[in-house]
Design goal:
Strand content of chain B: under 5%
Largest interface: C-D, 96 and 111 residues
Number of helices of chain B: 7
Helix content of chain A: over 70%
Helix content of chain B: 25-40%
Structural class of chain B: mainly alpha
Chains: A mainly alpha (about 200), B mainly alpha (about 190), C mainly alpha (about 650), D alpha+beta (about 400)
Order of helices and strands of chain B: HHHHHEHHE
CATH architecture of one domain in chain B: Orthogonal Bundle
Shape of chain B: globular
Order of helices and strands of chain A: EHHHHH
CATH superfamily of one domain in chain B: Cytochrome c-like domain
Oligomer: heterotetramer
Radius of gyration of chain A: 21 Å
Number of helices of chain A: 5
CATH topology of one domain in chain B: Cytochrome Bc1 Complex, Chain D, domain 2
Distance between the termini of chain B: 50 Å
Radius of gyration of chain B: 18 Å
């Protein structure tokens, strides 16, 4: 460092937080979504693979009751709107509305967990009955894990938004959380079809 | 594992773990070769249910050992124990996965039952099954009612799912039935 | 930092701030706190990277010792040095350790250390996640080895085929430890992959547009994407395995609708890309070392990048060639033959570009270049035997024989370990500030090269004359004796080479020549800072004007100013053109990654013994994660906008 | 390289009095107390005895075994062998993919030599280029570090043309090789349509159960660890597994095919010349994966038919007192829990069928060549010879062992 540096530009004017693809957390969230989506896709592939190995599907039992699963689907699709709204107000850094949105999303998330519990209860099989049962439990369990982590994340964020720690970066966290919720919903649509529609169609 | 033991407590703990794990995971080839094995030690014994007997040193070797239990499970089918006792639920012979033990629940009792046979249908397998294998079968029989360490008990088999695997079997508190009660038979 | 009125005192680098003061302030801001606590809570990518490298090399040595044990057992027919039980554990541990605890982590380790330096940023993206990944990796590796020492080492091969690895035929906890080790290392690998992707996408120095990214970074980027798509497969399959073993699911039980081949499909969907996950970073080493020592820019930059990307894609289309003899339909197999052979085209392009660089260059034969030349000699042979393996009929003969053992050691040692050793010699001055001995380096290379070929070339023939893999013993009289003895002799020479390497490292750390910033006269950004680099990497973020910045700007790189020096701050740039976009804060050191990793460890190991560990273990984990992400201080002062 | 496992054809030792059997008997005729000492003595120098010693003994099978290689070599092979004298010396053997004795292995070996020739040429080219590239400018090595120069436009253009040619060439070669590979694959598969005989092979940890099927049910029979087949007749082999995945591989005849529990696979083998070949499990299957071999004996049609008839017969009745005593011991001891001897009450299917055990070339799935002495060692201490195998030590006195040996050795 003997020579004096040649300054080509001064970047002091740049913002210190950003939403969406301009921020690293957005890309990080996207990366983990990719990983988990691959996991879902492979589990689904395994489901189809095992289905191809068996004459009847589900083997020796009727398809699962689809009341709770479908209710879950409706609930999740409906939650997309408050999620979108929360995302929008977080982009606008509107703290009051973000708080409302997060409280609403936390409530929705907890509700989906309750529905998921009923869903498990209504399944037509145990995980140790046969390969079909194992597959169904794993798919549902995998998605439930995502629900739990995202609801947990939402709850923590909600609490955070009522503390002194509110700063522009927190709004970025909220938007990332919204992106992730969209993924959880998007993952449920094909999984729902796999669990409740495919056994009725084949 | 012994020399590091002295050095520090943590390594001593590790060593203890090692011993426990060694026992549980050892895969010992079975039996001493012809000419080196003694006469069958317990074959002539007359053990009856309820009588206290000192625990055989082989208890830990077989009951706590995953490999022996798995072998016992395999032999249970190969030697057609399931022909009478089914998967432990009992059929012609009494159930093995419940809490009732007609001839005693200890490993030695079960060993003796297999070697000597019992009235009302249980044949004697003396000289028919090598002693080491009988120990394995006896230990496996105990795993059916959850009497063996779950970390060693067998998992499910690659066969039709008849009941949860031994490692998930609820542990039954052994109950001795009437010591003189060989009349108990079948599903009772 | 407190109240609002502090804002006028915010310090930024730039012409207004003295260089000496900039340096001092950056050091105060970025340095890892001293002491054990500081060591445990470090989030510096260079420290974490160094730990990763050292740990991975320890595992390399351990697995190498196992290899020697196997070679001793096989030196002659019917030896009884090892019992079959011990031998099976040893070869399983060798493969598992080399693949999961050495090869993948060491490549990641170099990425963790070098990628931020090469793209010209102050820190890796998500540094706490990075620290967390190291602890998780360490815990997984230690767990596996402790299990092995306690005679609970896995004994079913690194591929753990069911039903042999299933609940019926693998009693006890041995395979459970294997499956959980997978979970540990995959969590770590996936975390690092995301960090690398984000670092490369968002944190490149201004001006480093996509077509100026160093090839090493390209290699790591493609690798990280492969990790993202491949590793979930083995996570899914190992979870299925452990559930089959512990809670009685039936994924692989044919009697209840499961299937043994499902395991193989899932495992190889990961397992084949895994080879490229190891190999592509190594091509990055080669593409870094070659131009430096050939002393001309790499030939065919675009072709090399396209070859990397093509390999990344094709790597996912070949997994069935590990399953040619399982009785799958032959027409499908032929498709995989074609796909497997197609990968020869990008590999061939890479080889040509390297040869051309050397051809047109003015090479200087330092140790790193020797290893690269060794790489070409060995790897090309391994690649060519790979073409044989891609053919269904030939594979049906040599599959699961020593021919395959020879092939993949040529590909993995030749293709990854040789470049890796070259990379160690090349970047050692940057890592430590000292040069490795060139003379010992030449010995290291010579012993390594001769020993390797002596050990592994005979195995080609062994496989062709009928010796299967994974045998603890073999009968005399089948013509295998002499070749096996030769292989064992080669293995000892190889081991001697490793000893020379260790001696060289040890000696150089103490007495080695002190290295200056750019001892090799290389062209990439990591050589623009001191050796070893300061905690903040660069005093000022450099501006990149070409693919070989240090060669194109011999008078020093232009830089940008305006980043805070009193707070950890990174410069984010746009994905394609690397235009400055945002100044983003970077996290402080934290103990929470270690605590979270401990919670994860308790959860994973506990779940081997009871499924309830997943439920109860998630509570400390949740606490750990909340503690990790919970902001520690009052919010930063909103900065006044400066025009 | 000599295959000690494969005895030279008209082995004088193999005929008439069986030396190994004599050895075994001599040792075993000792009183019980000395049996132990005798066994210890066999172990010699702390090595595992029975197997080590056994392998140095000539094969004590009843079969005339023609020497392996050479005669029917195709022209391509002769040419290739001439190219590669080094490899040649190692190619031959009873378990070698490069010493083909069947149509398929021949085609595969041919394909392999073709690949080898093409790929070796490419390798040589790369090495030559590398050498030139490395040394063409050596004289300038004393230059300082740093970039030597900027690439020149014409050189770049030349190299780019070279790269294009290289890529196109690679693609063309690879495509051609794929074509050849595909053609050989089709050709090999076509053989399946001509199969005349069906064998069902079931793999178990760690041995092979072999069943010769026949449309007439009572003309089916079972054997273990050996397959005999008529020369020139394609044989369909149905492959099943009872426990874990194994792989059926007889390199001199054909590539391998896995045996997978829950699935049924098929392969076809054909032997073009007489001889004894060795097959071995090629998929890791646990403790004794290393000792899970089988013998494949290709014989003229008439001999095969005669063998088949002999196998159909139940076990020969014991001829002397000793053997009769042996049979009694066999049928009242643990042996009967696992083994079948057709014509007796022993009918368990856990272990190998022993009806004609003494007529087989090897013992314990190819672990030992068959001889009475080896049989004695195997029964006396199976866990030393094959640790972890399912054969337990049976509690027999040395005298009982003698009798059982006499009985089993009579099961030709």
């Amino acid at each position: 460092m003997e020579r004096a540096p040649r300054f080509a530009a001064d970047l002091a004017h740049l913002p210190t937080s950003a939403h969406g693809p301009r921020a690293t957390t957005w890309w990080g969230t996207l990366g983990f979504i990719l990983i988990e989506a691959t996991g879902f896709a492979l589990a689904a592939a395994a489901y189809f693979y095992l289905m191809g190995q068996t004459e009847t599907w589900p083997p020796g039992q009727s398809p699962p009751d689809w009341l709770w699963g479908t209710l879950q689907l409706v609930l999740m699709l409906a939650s997309l709107w408050p999620n979108w709204w929360t995302d929008r107000v977080a982009h606008a850094d509107d703290l009051r509305k973000v708080r409302i949105g997060l409280v609403a999303m936390s409530a929705v998330g907890l509700l989906t967990l309750v529905v998921r519990a009923f869903e498990f209860g209504a399944l037509n099989c145990r995980w140790d009955d046969n390969a079909y049962g194992s597959m169904v439990w794993v798919l549902l369990g995998l998605h439930a894990t995502h629900l739990i982590t995202d609801v947990g994340d939402t709850l923590v964020l909600t609490v955070l938004m009522f503390t002194k720690h509110v700063e522009p970066r927190r709004f970025t966290d909220v938007t990332d959380n919204c992106v992730y919720w969209n993924f959880v919903v998007a993952a449920w649509v094909p999984l729902w079809a796999l669990l409740y529609v495919v056994p009725r169609v084949v | 594992m012994s020399s590091p033991c002295r050095r520090s407590v943590s390594l001593a703990v590790l060593a203890v773990l090692a011993l426990a794990a060694c026992d549980r995971e050892e895969r010992e080839p079975r039996g001493a070769p012809v000419g080196e094995s003694g006469p069958q030690a317990i074959a002539q014994g007359s053990l009856y249910a309820g009588e206290p007997s000192p625990p055989d040193p082989r208890r830990q070797e077989y009951e706590g050992n995953a490999y022996h239990l798995a072998q016992g499970k395999q032999l249970y089918v190969w030697f057609n124990c399931n022909g009478c006792h089914s998967n432990g639920g009992g059929d012609i012979g009494p159930p093995l996965m419940d809490d009732t033990w007609i001839y005693g629940d200890s490993l030695e009792n079960i060993f003796a039952t297999i070697v000597q046979g019992r009235p009302n249908g249980m044949p004697s397998f003396r000289n028919k099954i090598p002693e080491t294998q009988i120990w394995e079968i006896a230990a496996y029989v105990r795993s059916m009612s959850g009497q063996t360490p779950t970390a060693a008990s067998p998992g499910r088999n690659d066969s039709l799912n008849a009941k949860p695997a031994e490692q998930r079997a609820p542990k039954a508190e052994p109950k001795q039935s009437n010591p003189g009660g060989p009349q108990v038979e079948g599903r009772q | 930092m407190s109240p609002r009125d502090a804002s006028p005192f915010i310090r930024r680098d730039g012409p207004a701030l003295e260089e000496v003061e900039t340096y001092a302030r950056l050091e105060r801001t970025w340095a890892t706190p001293p002491g054990l606590w500081g060591w445990l809570s470090s989030v510096d990518h260079k420290q974490v990277g160094r730990r990763y490298i050292v740990t991975a090399f320890v595992f390399f040595l351990l697995a190498g010792l196992l290899a020697l044990a196997m070679r001793m057992q096989l030196a002659g027919p019917e030896q009884t040095l090892l019992t079959p039980d011990r031998y099976n554990q040893i070869f399983t541990m060798h493969g598992t350790t080399m693949m999961f605890l050495f090869a993948v982590p060491v490549m990641e380790a170099f990425a963790i250390y070098l990628v931020p330096l090469m793209v010209g940023t102050r820190a890796i993206a998500f540094p706490r996640l990075n620290a967390f990944s190291y602890w998780v990796y360490l815990a997984g590796g230690v767990m596996l080895w402790v299990a092995f020492i306690l005679n609970v080492g896995p004994d079913v091969g690194w591929f753990s085929y069911v039903p042999l690895a299933g609940p019926q035929f693998s009693p006890g906890k041995r395979t459970d430890f294997w499956a959980q080790m997978i979970t540990f290392t995959e969590v770590a690998a996936l975390a690092v992959a995301v960090e690398i992707i984000v670092t490369v996408f968002k944190q490149r120095a201004p001006g480093m547009s996509l077509n100026r990214i160093p090839l090493f970074v390209w290699g790591q980027l493609v690798t990280s994407f492969m990790v993202v798509f491949a590793m979930p497969a083995v996570m899914v399959s190992s979870s299925m395995l452990i559930m089959d073993r512990l809670i009685g699911t039936h994924f692989f039980n044919p009697a209840e609708g499961g299937d043994a081949l499902l395991w193989q499909h899932l495992f190889w969907f990961f397992g084949h890309p895994e080879v490229y996950i190891i190999f592509l970073p190594a091509t990055g080493f080669v593409s870094s070392i070659l131009p430096t020592f050939a002393r001309r820019p790499i030939f065919g930059y675009t072709a090399l990048v396209l070859a990397l990307v093509a390999t990344g894609f094709l790597g996912f289309g070949l997994w069935v060639h590990h399953m040619f003899v399982t009785g799958l339909p032959h027409l499908g197999n032929s498709f995989y033959t074609a796909a497997s052979m197609a990968i020869a085209v990008p590999s061939g392009i890479q080889i040509f570009c390297w040869l051309a660089t050397l051809w047109d260059g003015r090479p200087r034969f330092a140790t790193p270049l020797l290893f690269v030349i060794g790489f070409i000699v060995i790897f090309v042979l391994g690649g060519l035997s790979g073409i044989m393996l891609a053919s269904v009929p030939i594979d049906s003969q040599v599959h699961d024989t020593y021919f395959v053992v020879a092939h993949f050691h040529y590909v993995l040692i030749g293709g990854a370990v040789f470049p890796l050793f070259g990379a160690v010699y090349y970047w050692f001055p940057k890592f430590t500030g000292r040069m490795l001995s060139e003379r010992a380096g030449a010995w290291n290379f010579g012993l390594f090269f001769v020993g390797f070929n002596l050990a592994f070339f005979p195995m080609h023939i062994l496989g062709l004359i009928g010796m299967p893999r994974r045998v603890y013993s073999y009968p005399a009289g089948l013509g295998w004796d002499d070749l096996n003895l030769l292989a064992t002799a080669g293995a000892t020479i190889l081991a001697a080479g490793v000893l020379v390497f260790l001696g060289n490292v040890w000696h150089s750390l103490k007495y080695g020549l002190v290295a200056d910033d750019n001892p090799w006269g290389a062209a990439t950004l990591e050589w623009a800072t001191t050796s070893p680099p300061p905690s903040f990497n660069f005093v000022h973020i450099p501006v990149v004007t070409g693919s070989n910045p240090l060669w194109e700007e011999p008078d020093g790189l232009p830089v940008v100013g305006g980043l805070r020096v009193d707070q950890r701050e990174l410069l984010l740039t746009s994905v394609v053109d690397a235009e400055p976009e945002v100044r983003e804060p970077s996290p402080e050191p934290s103990i929470w990654p270690l605590l979270s990793a401990t919670a994860v460890t308790i959860l994973f190991i506990g779940s081997i013994f009871t499924p309830w560990a997943v439920v109860w273990g998630s509570i400390p984990l949740a606490v750990g994660l909340i503690g990790w992400f919970w902001p520690k201080s009052a919010p930063d002062t909103p900065e006044p906008v400066i025009d | 390289m000599t295959a000690r496992l494969a005895a030279p054809s008209p082995s004088p030792a193999g005929r008439g009095r069986d030396p190994c059997a004599a050895l075994g008997e001599a040792k075993l005729r000792l009183p019980p107390a000395q049996a132990l000492l005798a066994r210890k003595a066999w172990e010699g120098e702390g090595k595992v005895f029975p197997r080590n010693l056994a392998l140095t003994l000539p094969l004590c099978g009843p079969l005339p075994l023609p020497p392996g290689a050479g005669e029917g070599a195709a022209p391509w092979r002769r040419a290739a062998l001439a190219l590669c004298p080094l490899a040649l010396s190692a190619c031959q053997g009873i378990q070698s993919a490069l010493d083909p004795a069947g149509h398929q292995s021949g085609r595969i070996a041919g394909l392999w030599w073709l690949f080898l020739a093409v790929l070796a040429a490419i390798y040589a080219l790369v090495l030559v280029l590398l050498l030139i590239a490395a040394f063409r400018s050596r004289r300038r090595r004393s230059l300082p570090p740093g970039p030597a120069f900027r690439p020149e436009e014409p050189t770049e253009r030349r190299l780019t043309r070279g790269l294009t040619a290289w890529a196109v060439g690679t693609a063309a070669i690879v495509l051609t090789l794929t074509g050849f590979s595909y053609a050989v694959d089709r050709d090999i598969l076509a053989l399946g349509h001509r199969a005349e005989l069906t064998i069902e092979v079931t793999a178990k940890q760690w041995w092979w159960q072999v069943k010769y099927d026949d449309p007439v049910p009572n003309r089916s029979f079972e054997t273990a660890n050996e397959i005999r087949l008529p020369v020139g007749v394609p044989v369909r082999v149905v492959l099943k597994s009872q426990d874990v995945i194994h792989s059926f591989w007889v390199p001199n005849l054909h590539g391998k095919t896995d045996l997978i529990p829950g699935r049924v696979n098929e392969t076809v083998i054909v032997a073009d010349r007489e001889g004894r070949y060795r097959g071995q499990c090629a998929e890791f299957c646990g403790f004794q994966h290393a000792n899970m071999a089988l013998d494949v004996v290709a014989m003229p049609r008439e001999q095969f038919d005669a063998w088949r008839e002999s196998q159909l017969a139940p076990a020969s009745a014991p001829s002397d007192d000793r053997s009769r005593e042996g049979q009694r011991v066999f049928l009242t001891s643990a042996c009967v829990m696992c083994h079948t001897v057709r014509g007796t009450t022993a009918a368990s299917r856990v272990g190998p069928d022993l009806t004609h055990v003494a007529a087989r070339p090897s013992l314990a799935a190819g672990t030992l060549p068959y001889s009475k002495g080896n049989l004695a060692g195997w029964i006396a201490d199976p866990q030393r010879i094959k640790p972890g195998s399912q054969m337990p030590v049976v509690d027999l006195s040395a005298d009982q062992l003698q009798s059982v040996l006499a009985y089993l050795d009579g099961l030709k």
